[in-house]
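User: Quick sanity check before I run a bigger batch. Here is a single chain. Can you write out its predicted 3D structure?
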Amino acid sequence: MTTTSHGVHEVPVTDTVLEVEDLSVEFSTEDGIVRAVRGVGYQLDRGDSLGIVGESGSGKSVTALAVMGLLPAGARVRGSVRFEGTELLGLSDARLSDLRGSGIAMIFQDPMTSLNPVYPVGYQITETLLRHNPELKGRAARARAVDLLGTVGIPSPERRVDSYPHELSGGMRQRVVIAIAMANDPDVIIADEPTTALDVTVQAQILDALETARAETGAALVLITHDLGVVAGHTDRVAVMYAGRIVETGSVEDIFYTPRMPYTLGLLGSLPRLDREEERLTPISGSPPSLLNLPPGCPFAPRCPMRRDVCDTDEPALRRAGHDLHLSACHFADELVDTGADQVFDAVGADSEALARFADAASATHSEEDSV
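Assistant: Done. Predicted structure follows.
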């Protein structure tokens, strides 16, 4: 056993920095038990990048908060979360506090909830630096804060270091949050919807800043989003979540070229494309199920064009779909190989014609009542 700069006793360092295994989270409410996360698992090696994609309420953010130890006290958490071999679930608040920022850093969706409105942004960066590097002196910490602001693309960082959050645009505030996240060279950065509510050009700048943070720190990245288009150019692997669990996972090429889960096909079909001027987007019909009352079988069955009787009674396990690192939670994942999906999808997603071909291929075994 060794002790690291994060103040945590752990096994000898390996290439694996974060392991999440069979993670489940439940909340008690007046209406019953909310099963927010169900058996989620993934592994990150140094320098890896994973995109977690799904609709609102799929469990993406709750999974991240569980990893960070930031869930409310009433949450029931089971499973395992290991950082560099050390189990984090059950770790004391003090030890988790030492780990946050220096070992694992998180970028939240709304920078205004992350930044203190009464302090200049430079003060907030230096506070983070001094929290984990007490030997750093004030002037050196300020210089480092200016350097970090410049690194994430904030113009005139020497002046902006004294600005208050309300004096900055939404995109600049998010850059400040990224600067804080990378301040202590963490081994893992978790970014939860970092581009939400920003216009397209600013989104691209924020994603570039995130790439810079990853390159500067060498951190592994977990990028949480509802947009498959965001992960296409910024992560190596993708995990698609639905109703609290991962329903498909694989490389970006697996997910975009050879999807093996009808829900993934639906997400791809909802992506806008610039090369089809008059194509309509293809939405997924229906709504996600309530996590208070999940159906007994596959949660996606009521919305699925491949639905059969077994889908209503048995929830499919996440199993191999093509090769060992491509997994799908669909009873009929193998049948998708024969639909032509691997020919009609390209690196930027799917279009309505592709989804129509998929639906036509499935119609022989399922009513057209529930169509994507």
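The first strand starts at residue 2 and ends at 3.

User: Great, the batch can go ahead then.
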